[in-house]
Every structure is written in C-alpha cells, then in structure tokens.
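Next up, sample data:
>
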Amino acid sequence: MIPKISRRYIRIFKSNKRAYASWIILCILLVFSLLAPIIAHDKPLIVSYKGQWHFPMLQFVSDDELGGNLPTEADFKDSFTVNEINKNGWMIMPIIEWYYDTVDYFSNEPVPSGPSTKHWLGTDDQGRDVLARLIYAIRLGLIFGFILTALSSVIGVFVGAIQGYFGGRTDLFIGRFLEIWGSLPQLFILIIISSLIAPSFWSILLILLLFSWTSLTGVVRAEFLRTRGLDYVKAAKGLGLTDFQVMLKHILPNALVATITYVPFMLAGAIVSLSALDFLGLGLPVGTPSLGELIRQGKENLNAPWLGLTAFFTLTILLSLLVFVGEGVRDAFDPHKKENA
C-alpha cells in the first residue's frame, strides 16, 4: 500500500500535465535506450541455418558455420553470408541493422552521407549510422547521469547532514571549505584533470563527482538546522538514541524531500557536463557514442548539418523533459500546492 501522503504527492504531480507527460516520455525513452542492443545492431537476433539455430548476439558464430570458408566471426553485412542464410534458412535482424561502431564499407556515397532509406539519419564522418549512435548515446548519457546523480546525492546529503546537525565549528569548517571549493574555476580544473588522466567512463565520472555533490549540501544543511531543535528530535535524544540514529531515523526523511526535488535538475546537469567534455574532446574515449561527440562532428562537418542538428535537438529535448519533470516534482512537494490539491 502506498502511504496517504505519497498518494497526495503523486496526485499533485499528475495534475501538472506537462510534467506528467514529460515523465512518461522520459520513461519510454529510457526503456527504448536500454533495449538498444536489440533495436540497433549489425548482428541478427536469431539465425536458422540448415536446421540449426544460432544467436549471434549471445554466442560466437563463425563464417564456416554459415557456409563460408573462414573460422573467423561471420559478417552479416557480407552479401555472400546473407545469401547463404536466405537460401538455407532465415534470420531476424534488429529494426536498425547497424551497431554504433559499424562502418558502412559498401556505401557508394561519400561520408558523411545524408539521410536515406538505408541510414535514416545519415552517416557520420566515419561512415557509421547516426541513428544507431544516437540511441546508444542517449543510453550512455542517461546511465552516466543516473550514476553521477546518485553518488552526488549520497555525498551531498552526508556532508550537509553532518554540517547541519552538529553545527558550531563543524558547520563553520565545512562551510568555509565549500566556499573555497565552490570558488575554484571548475571547468578549467575539469579540463586539466581530463587531459592528464586516460579517459574512461569511470574516470570521467570521478572527475565530475569532485564538484557535483556540493550543490546539495546547502539544502540538506538548512533542513537539519531547522529540524534538530524540534521537540521530537529532543525526545529521541532523551530516549538514549545515538546521534547517528537520530539523524537517520528522524531528520533524514524530512531532508530527503528537499533532495528529491533537486534530483531531476542534477541529472540534467550531469548530462550537460558529460556532453561538454565530449564536445571539447576531453571526455569519453574516441569512438564512444555520445551527444557531445555528435555535436563536435557537426561543428567539424558544416557540410553535414544533420549531424549537429540531430544531436542538438536530442539534447535539447532530453534536458527539457528533465526540467519539466523537475518542476513537477518541486510543485508536488510544495506545501502551498498540497493545500490547494
């Protein structure tokens, strides 16, 4: 059973039509991107050849198993392999028959090529399908954003709780540290560190985590400062509960309300940060599909406007959905909105 107060939050959130519609679209987009390997891939989902079944996405299928002469992995873009399968069986290909790093070596058009029936959003400057790379870029961006937001929230809530609950010198010391840390030129520091460390998913995540957690500490600190002097907190201390138990069981649930309202905006900021580093060429390794990399390709190939426009509109729509959801969550936890619901 959903608690009564939670049902009220959900009802208020649903009353915001724009936020609720954005939430539904965002969920569909997330599910669609998570299913990217079975939606966009250069290998069939299932192959039936001479009565034998093969699952190329899950197992190694050699060329000689499908009528070829080589023990290497079968190339399902090779006309000989395709004809052999069609003559002696069948195969089911994904909706988009391209993986994010598949190069179309059989194209007769110079790269980057424009949208066509073969490549719905064209190809990039390496001859790779833009739509396939876009789907994987959305998945990577959302996964990266969720992980960074979750880690930032944990650190931000922890530091803000310590700062607000104990107050005094602890609050003063952490507050001064946050002032100094926040005054540093974050973008320049991120660029310098990114240029010194070998780029990878986790290294970029840790680099961005250095600064992303600070935006939440002030909100949590204020909530703990407001709550620590209330009667029920004093009663909990009088019953012999430790500081950790009081913070975890009696104050943290109230602070999480303010935290939840920040999460969509933090997620949007994480995606923008990753895209910015990728655009500058200091983000993920070369060849990794990302929105920033697609935008950079658009800048470097002005004769191929579909590259930049596709990534720009995708990033704009994704960030707009997150902002609309964030506005709806903020309204749902607004006491004045609850009174009028």
Remarks:
- The radius of gyration is 26 Å.
- The mean pLDDT is 87.
- The beta strands are 46-49, 52-54, 89-92.
- DSSP finds 14 helices and three strands in the chain.
